[in-house]
Amino acid sequence: IAHGCDASVLLATNPGGGRTERVAPPNNPSLRGFEVIDAAKAALERSCPRTVSCADILAFAARDSITLTGNVVYSVPAGRRDGSISREEDANNNLPPPTFTAQQLIDRFKNKTLTAEEMVLLSGAHTVGRSFCSSFVDRIWNGNTPIVDAGLSPSYAAQLRVLCPSNTSQATAPIDPGSPNVLDNNYYKLLPRGMGLFFSDNQLRVDGNLNVLVNRFAGNETLWKERFATAMVNMGRIQVQTGNCGQVRLNCNVVNPMSSSVSLAGSVEDDGLAATS
Ligand code: HEM
Ligand SMILES: *[C@@H]1O[C@H](CO)[C@@H](O)[C@H](O)[C@H]1NC(C)=O
Ligand SMILES: *[C@@H]1O[C@H](CO)[C@@H](O)[C@H](O)[C@H]1NC(C)=O
Ligand SMILES: *[C@@H]1O[C@H](CO)[C@@H](O)[C@H](O)[C@H]1NC(C)=O
């Protein structure tokens, strides 16, 4: 069973019981903003009932965040349907941890049909947002002793130790300290300066083939933004449910009650996703 772009991450409970993706350690407490998705869903159910899936809402929200933070405009195919199963172990087994090597990152993306170049392109999303200290604390502290992991700038490590004073700190740090709210190509410029926050970020410059791409995207923001948008569209095609598979959830947090049959009208093409939205 595929649990890709089917909004399984939004389910707060499973009909069959068991813990969900959303409470898995890689997602919790990191994932937030569920109320924004709920508000969009509520508005859509008022204006156009039983038509727009939660999986499509997530894809549109990602697109709109990119437009708002990066001034990048692109179209996203529509027509994904929502899944009915969410399992904690799917998140644990599929999301790459920040301790992965270049080869492990390439393999994990390949398993989801994404190329090494797309892995490098999509990693540029680390130009926005924040991370809990736990994802990089072992690069700056060994117990109470300051350390500097390979590939990390000593002065940046010192700044990070101020934000993350100990292994038990629940604090967060910006992933791109220069412009944490702007989607630009700064991520790729930080890497050669020893300012990739995660061990996994630094792997993109340690691997020679990947580093060629890092330099290319650092040198041409237009090129990165164009290809990033295309990679986002490709990522949004992973393990989609269309046709008679899945459902259009009425509430993104729970699967529909058995009695409510909801179908999705509209034309479908090759992979079942309609051309644009
Ligand atoms: C290449 C493998 C990747 C690894 C190992 C990775 C790892 C991480 C980690 C550990 C965090 C911090 C989570 C926290 O502490 O709350 C994070 C945050 C983030 N990641 Fe990734 N990530 C990867 C790929 C991606 C991709 C493909 C995207 C999107 C296209 C992305 C977008 C983000 C964003 C926007 C944040 C900040 C979220 C926030 O502010 O809460 N990452 N990532
Ligand atoms: C991805 O990994 C899963 C589980 O490990 C495996 O069953 C599947 O065949 C892999 N898919 C690809 C495209 O490598
Ligand atoms: C942080 O604490 C965890 C849990 O006690 C431990 O496993 C880990 O080794 C510690 N890391 C560092 C860098 O001290
Ligand atoms: C940067 O990339 C854009 C888009 O692909 C291209 O049109 C432009 O010629 C590139 N600029 C340079 C200086 O290479």
UniProtKB/TrEMBL annotation:
Binds 2 calcium ions per subunit. Ca(2+) 2 binds at residues 127, 176, 184. Substrate binds at residue 96. One of its GO terms (molecular function) is metal ion binding. Pfam families: peroxidase (PF00141). The keyword Calcium applies. Keywords: Calcium, Disulfide bond, Heme, Hydrogen peroxide, Iron, Metal-binding, Oxidoreductase, Peroxidase, Pyrrolidone carboxylic acid. Belongs to the peroxidase family. Ascorbate peroxidase subfamily. This is Plant heme peroxidase family profile domain-containing protein. It comes from Aegilops tauschii subsp. strangulata (Goatgrass). The lineage of its organism: Eukaryota, Viridiplantae, Streptophyta, Embryophyta, Tracheophyta.
